[in-house]
Amino acid sequence: MANTLLARHAEALGLFGERVHMVRDDQWDAPTPCTEWSVRDLVNHLTGEQLWVVPLVHDGLTVAEVGDRFDGDVLGDDPAAVWDRAAEAAVRAFREDGALKRTVHLSYGETPAEDYCRQMVDDAIVHAWDLSRAIGAEERLPKSLVDFAVRDLAPQAADLSSSGLFAPPVKTPPNADAQTRLLAMVGRRA
To answer: Is 58 a member of any domain?
Structure first.
């Protein structure tokens, strides 16, 4: 199970990274399906999330101990390079011996590192679609990632929008494919 999770984590970050490298100079201010975020905001958000992994998983720090180190724009003048470094470090941190058995100290409390990794995978998958749509890239997500996220998010689908992190779910036809159902769970229209 851990190997599958780590494989999906690397695959999701790889997919998002491919899209980051496709962003043209004139697309950084373009809107995304995340209505309050531009392409740059979206990439900054996911890059910032990866930057948090090393201090939380590898170093065992709390959110309070990390402080505001990753607030604001973390992308600088070379967003793709910053993304690459952050993603590679996050993959390494989760792959350390025993990393998934650790507890991480998140803003909402102590969480098994395995659950934290799952959340990171789900977020990268959904935001890879968001970024694809924003820049006009291929929107079809790999089946392995869609199946992972559907299995992971479906049990909590009814509560996702109440978290404040997702838009309300979108109705889908009964014969909707897995990707459409996934996107609908998190308030996106395919």
So the answer is: yes
DSSP code for 96? S
Print the domain residue range for 116: 2-142
Query: What's the pTM value of the predicted model, to 2 decimals?
Result: 0.94
Q: What is the mean pLDDT of the chain?
A: 93
The residues with which 151 forms a beta bridge, in sequence order, are none
What DSSP string describes 29-93? Answer: T-B-SSTT-BHHHHHHHHHHHHHHHIIIIIS--BHHHHTTTT-S---TT-HHHHHHHHHHHHHHH
- Which amino acid does the sequence have at 134? A
Arithmetic mean of pLDDT, 106-133: 95
Q: How far apart are the first and last CA of the chain?
A: 30
